[in-house]
Structures are given as C-alpha cells and as structure tokens.
Amino acid sequence: MTLIDLANPTRFLSLTARVLPWLAGATTMLLLVGLYQSAMAPDDYQQGATVKIMFVHVPNAWLSMFVWGVMSLAALGTLVWRHPLADVAAKAAAPIGAAFTFLALVTGSLWGRPMWGTYWEWDARLTSVLILFLMYLGLIALWRAVEDPSRAARAAAILTLVGAINLPIIKFSVDWWNTLHQPASVLRMGGPSLDRAFLIPLLVMAIGFSLLFVTLHLAAMRNEILRRRVRSLQMMQASRQAA
Amino acid sequence: MSLGPYASFVVTSYTLVAATVLLLVTWIALDYRRQKARLRDLEASGVTRRSGRQATDL
Fold first, then answer.
1. Which one of A46, A229, A234, A240 makes the best mutation probe of the B interface by having the most chain B beta carbons within 10 Å?
2. pLDDT tens digits, one per residue of B1-58
3. What number of other Cβ atoms are within 10 A of residue A182's Cβ?
C-alpha cells in the first residue's frame, strides 16, 4: 500500500482496522514498562521524589507541541495539496492535543508548587503554553461552530498555521527570556544533561505517550470519517425524501 | 518506594494523567459506537452508499 492509497478514506479505514489493535497493545506495554521504570527511578538529590512528575510532565509537554506540528502539516495538506484526509487528521488531532497540553500545564503546576513555591507564574514558557491550550480550544470551537466540514477546514487550517508561530516561541522562551522554568535538558545542543537513571524512563514514557497519540489519532480519524459518511448518507436520504 | 513529603503532588499528577487518558480513550470508543449505530440505522432505513456498498462496510 502506497501513501497515495491512504488518500482513499475506505482504504484508510481498512488499514486502521488492521493496525489499531497492534498499536494499542504496543502502547499499553510501553507505558507499563515506563511506569515501572518511573517508579523505580531514584530520587533527585535536590528535588527528591517530585522528579517523578517529570516522567509524565515532559512527554505531555513535548506532545502538546508535536500535535500542533502534525496539525500544521495537515493544514498545509488542506490548503496546498487538498488531500481528502488532511482536515480529518487536523480535526481529529485537536482534542487530543488539547488534552496533552492541559496535562502539561497541570502536572507542571503540581511540580512547580513544591519546587518553585508557586503553582503558577506568568513567565514566558508557562504563558506561551497556556496560549497554545487556548488556541486548541479555539480550534475545537471553530470546528463545532461551522456545520459544513469543508468550509470549517479552510478556516481552521489558516488558524492552525498562524498558531504555529507559537511553537518556536514555546521552545526557545527559556533561552530568550528570564523564566522560572528551567532550560531544555534533553533536546539541547551538546546532548542531554540528564543522568541515565532519569533519561531512560523519560524516553520510554515519551515513546509510550507518542504511540498513545498515534493510536488515539488514528481511532479519532476513523470516527471522523464515519461521521462524515453519516452526514452524506443523511443528506442523500433527505434529498430522496424531498424528490 | 517512599515519595517523601511531596507524595500528594506526585500521586495527584499521575492520577490526573491516568484519568485524562482514560477519558480520551472512553470518549473515542463511545464516539465509534455512536457512529456505527447511526450507520446501522441509516442502512436499516434503506440508504446505500454511491458505491453500492452497505453503510457499515469499512
């Protein structure tokens, strides 16, 4: 099966039916291994056991940006290549991305209270991630406000591409401004500064959460294709009844 | 495994993540069942796809 074959929603549905059980199994296994490794990881000499929050906070923070990146590619697919599944992919990803961003904000806040002495600070990293969360909610609202999916798709694609400007701001906010949030310790020049005892569980959890996103995204895309099939059949039924 | 004086922050974080992931999975699974049920209803009312396939065929 080539990539162009996936442009056909029916072929895409048959592919998802075959791969989803395997993806769900692999996701569950990886997350269980990651959780075990997180539980067994030693306490940090400064942060104590609160360092364990990192194993769920960082993967969710990475995915909050990654999902918007996926939606931006899908937006290009809608506007430039008019790929039939591009807006399906974008619409299906938005609630999942919003959930990851919400978790990044909440777990970050719960980590910040014991370490910084506050749940929230209006610094550049925290504020830019909050803006990302609000943009996700705005996109979901836009999709729900416009009944015709193809009309909503173009408006949502433009909004997504405009919102992508926020991604480098989030990534480099800790370098460009003085922030309470620590600078990057994994994705940085010179390699990760984390000890292997923390890095390995973190990477396993990050891969597990990434697989979770792929699984949920494919399942949500399948639902969206079925929802559009329902809509077109209802319209066919209505036009037959009117004739 | 002792989580020390900040155990409540760690436990709350993991609980919230688990609850949100469970909510996402449940929502997507229920949505799938809802769409399949709507397609079955349409099929029962005699509506067919342009391709001639049944509404519920993948």
1. A229
2. 677 888 999 999 999 999 999 999 999 999 999 999 999 998 888 877 776 676 666 6
3. 10
* For chain A, domain boundaries: 53-190+206-228
Contacts of B6 in chain A (CB under 8 A): 48-50, 114
Which ranges in A164-195 belong to alpha helices (H)?
166-176
- Measured between alpha carbons, how far is residue A185 from residues A96, A194, A202, B17 in Å? 25, 6, 12, 22
pLDDT score for A232:
87
Tell me how long chain A is: 243
pLDDT digits (tens, 9 = 90+) for A95-117: 999 999 999 999 999 999 999 89
Ranges under pLDDT 70 in chain A: 1-6
What residues of chain A lie within 8 A of the CB of B21, using their CB?
A: 99, 212
Residue of B1, B24, B35 lying closest to A227 (CB–CB):
B35
Question: Mind telling me how many Å the CA of A15 is from chain B's nearest CA?
Answer: 10
What is the C-alpha to C-alpha distance for residues A237 and A232, in angstroms, rounded to an integer? 9
Of B2, B6, B49, which is closest to A50 when you measure between CB atoms? B6
pLDDT at B47: 78
> For tokens 């609980």, what's the residue?
B15
Give the residue extent of every domain in chain B: 10-35
User: Which contiguous run of DSSP H or E holds residue B9?
Assistant: helix B7-44
Question: Cβ contacts (< 8 Å) between A236 and chain B: which residues?
Answer: 47
Start-to-end CA span in chain A (Å): 41
The answer to whether residue B30 neighbours chain A at the CB level (below 8 Å) is: no
Inter-chain CB proximity B35 and A49 less than 8 Å: no
Q: Which two tokens stand for residue A62?
A: 């990475």
pTM of the model: 0.91
Q: Is B11 on the interface with A (CB under 8 A)?
A: no
